Batch of 4 targets.
Target 1
Amino acid sequence: MSTISEVIIKDHRQLEQYYNKILASSDHDHQVRFGNQFTWELARHFVGEELVVFPAFEKYLDGKGHEMAEHDRSDHQLIKELLKSFQNMKPTDSNYVDRLQGLWAMLSQHIEDEEKNDLPALEDALTTVEKASSSIAKSFGRAKAFVPSRSHPIAGENPPFATAVGLLSAPIDRLTDIFRKFPD
């Protein structure tokens, strides 16, 4: 059974891997496929955190958890704006790599903060609740199966509005994903 930290960190490493695959290639088809994969994974990861992890911060970490959740929601909103502009670009666009690198700079700082501060604090709080971390990890995985696969920053950053708009966007995203290229 995985902890919520293990699941989140695994997602972070996958995102980094997709980012590096885009940068390491000059093949536009390869970049399109991994750009779509990067977008798909990041959008799902963020909404999963917003639906499952941030409420866990607030539930198990009291006032500090609320502050952490609000800070991370704010980070997510800024990164979603960058992701939205990136997800509509083509590798042939002159600023494609620059846009991706700017997105990654902000995202990697967010990831570092989450891994050094937020997740350890949550895990410490969860040690008193039997199997809570693995239960949250399962909920996170389930949530990612139903959320949008593209960035929709217009949905806002606070549930329930963001959740409702996201869930309405998910079927449309899934349908358009059929026509997008992804890694084999």
Target 2
Amino acid sequence: MGDKVKFEIEFVIQSSPQLLYQYISTPSGLSEWFADNVNSRGEIFNFIWDGAEESAKLLKRKSDEFVRFAWEENEDDSFFEMRIIVDEITKDVSLFITDFAEEDELEEAKMLWKNQISSLKQVLGST
């Protein structure tokens, strides 16, 4: 397996930081847009897509600001983080994604996030 490359993408989302945080930090919120179903036992979140299950450990979180997960099967220090950023002047809310992907899967990984965030925006009623 090659080295993973860190990438970041920002999405403007019309939502309050508090509401958005519920959708990125709770199993019920994540089930609405990120995976078909999400269960958690303590720090371990189980994400289910089309019958396949992947587990991630919740590494860090700060209420209304960010969550950081690491996939259980990772053998490196990669993680994925969803950080809520509010522009101090315009009060625009953005979701800042940090993730890692293999060099040859970078565009695919970004596209996957774009599709996921598009689902999140639909759930939130954000355009």
Target 3
Amino acid sequence: MELLLIRHALPLRLSDPAGADPELTPEGEDQAKRLAAALADGRYGTVDTVVSSSSRRAVATASAAAAALAVEIELDDRLVEVSHGWTTYGIAHTYPDRATLLRDMNAGRLGDNTFDLDAFRARVVTGIESLVSEADRLVAVVCHGGVINAYLSHVIGAEKMFFAEPYYTSVSRVLALPDGYRQVLSINEIDHLR
């Protein structure tokens, strides 16, 4: 089977003492529509299932895809971002450069927040691996940049978990065979946005 790991569309940046869970920006809504059209047109194959993180930005992105594919969305809390529940969304955008951001994230921190790298990866890998079946199917997994990094770094055995910057609504493809074999087929496909 094949997994399409899809980063959600562009969200708003915000702070909320109850936990920042932003909606999509107008640009993000357009990205989600373009992704949905590409999935419905079969650009990546025939998608059988759409699974989404329960975060608003992922659900909004997945909803556009599911509507275009005429399927239901399956929500999975194991696919939420490392920053889930934090009071500010958009901390990564405050870093002076990508190298500094990745260094901090690979040390288990983002801004003033800290997280457990091993627990995050274990949660993500367990969630994504639960989708693998013996059936020859194609599953679209709408999630987050950190989630995609955690799973891809697991598949390739990378020393550092955070190494790529998935673009909004980018598609990264993984071949997942029932015998445990995993192969990264692509990272960060964005042709559907052109």
Target 4
Amino acid sequence: MFYSMQQAGKPKRWLDIDDYISKGYKKTPNKWFRGEVFTAPVPFMDIKLLHNHPANTSMSDFLAPYMSQCGCHFFRDDLIAALEAVGVDNLHKYPVSITDPDDGKVYNNYKAVNIIGVVSAADMKKSKFELGDSTPLMDVPFDDLILKENDMKGLLMFRLAESLISILVHERVKNHLLEKGFIHGGFNDHIEFYKLEEIAFL
């Protein structure tokens, strides 16, 4: 079984997207959502967190092990180690520096991660979706995603070709992160996993 992996919805610290954009990181030729090996150099990213405003209910002191803001994915080093220990071997990692503007603390234990591998695994005959006039290519709005289980190419984590923003992971990955304490398996977890038939891919 595969799951959709997403950043946690629980209150947390957020990256400063305006700072990311102002430093030109969004304008590099590398596209993080394509699942392809980069051919252009990846700049060292020195980014900031947003100020923590206690009155904002989406914020807290919690610094998540996985952040998918700014158009790319940031994994904490211990999360990367856990993923690789369970067999995920298609992560290309790039060093980043994350600064907390509230206390000046600098975090160097995160990496920007390019997840290599795009798999056309959606069973378009069994899945439920509404395309309108568009072509089923890379951003299909699935209501119920059914996978062709034999088309995974042995990958435990990959991007779905029919919905490139979607990261799918094997149940073995989810269970390993549960065992290692990265998630607790309940509502509002550190990292959220959704069954493919229970989430809409928009």
